[in-house]
Amino acid sequence: MPELPEVEALVDHLRRHAAGHTIGRVDVAALSVLKTFDPPPTALHDRAVTGAQRWGKYLGLQTGGLFLIAHLSRAGWLRWSDRLAPAPLRPGKGPIALRVHLGDPGQAPGFDLTEAGTQKRLAVWVVDDPARVPGIATLGPDALAVGADELARLLADQTGRIKTVLTDQKVIAGIGNAYSDEILHTARLSPFATAAKLSADQQGALHDAMHAVLTDAVTRSVGQQAATLKGEKRSGLRVHARTGLPCPVCADTVREISFADKSFQYCPTCQTGGKVLADRRMSRLLK
Questions:
Q1: Measuring CA to CA, how many Å separate 93 from each of 25, 30, 98, 120?
Q2: How many domains, the chain?
Q3: What is the mean pLDDT of the chain?
Q4: pLDDT tens sequence across 142-153
Q5: Is residue 221 part of a domain?
Q6: How far apart are CA 133 and CA 111, in angstroms?
């Protein structure tokens, strides 16, 4: 799933390459991605792109008084092309859900919003105010803008596990499964630690880790081509998606916890005092 650093990089790409162009045509190949119908996507035609923005893990194009906003969800992506094919998309054919031509179709650049797999969760809105997107309206403060004192206040009201709290967009916006693993590993915190019970030192370590991990990832991601962002993300991960490999800090084996259709990774030596946490696949007891 694209998280704050990747979405920031995609938005930066749109700022540099889409701003100043006029939207020639918007093709919708999957009606299910549209979450708003008034105004329709055709209302974007002939509007100049004035900028691009990020709200947590949402990205959007600004075109004067209207915004085209997307949430890429787990398997969505933005694919840029210096010249898109002119033919309209065929509904239901292939992974492309929506296409934006930035100029005359067939003679201009643009981008596709794509989604792999069978679980279709990519979502697109056309609105005159980003706050009309329900998920944006309820976002917590952006992860890169949260200060140490603010983080302490946010955690004080959270009785859940810190892993869950970090990925709750209503508490802190922008962090997903991968970077929460990286942040907790850097902060040397168990994913099962209770958020409200973290000590002042632990809160400080979490704040420093959150900013360090995300800032480093943004620095590595911004300027990359959209096609290389996923590989860049994987290359910078220390524990996430590295089950069975040695921790780069202590060489202990990176372990995994799985539940439902998700999994996350941690290092016992760095994060849990050497204790291997129970996996739901093996036990109902998470200690």
A1: 19, 9, 11, 14
A2: 2
A3: 93
A4: 999 999 999 999
A5: yes
A6: 22
For 191, counting Cβ atoms within 10 Å of its Cβ (0-12 exposed, 13-18 middle, 19+ buried), the class is: buried
pLDDT of residue 281: 55
Cα–Cα dist 26/45, whole Å = 7
Instruction: Measure the CA–CA gap between 22 and 49, rounded to whole angstroms.
Output: 6
Domain assignment present for residue 212? The answer is: yes
* pTM exceeding 0.70: yes
Which of 6-10, 62-66, 202-206, 258-262 has the weakest average pLDDT?
A: 258-262
Torsion sign, CA atoms 29, 31, 34, 38: positive
Same domain, yes or no: 160 and 125: no
Both 154 and 229 in one domain: the answer is yes
Which backbone phi and psi does 240 adopt, to 5 degrees? -65, 135
> What DSSP element (H or E) covers 11?
helix 4-17
Residue 282: is its pLDDT beyond 60?
no
* Residue bearing the bigger pLDDT, 281 or 233: 233
What interhelical angle do 200-221 and 4-17 show, nearest 10? 30
Which of 45, 28, 48, 25 is CA-nearest to residue 36?
Answer: 28
- Model confidence at 260: pLDDT above 70: no
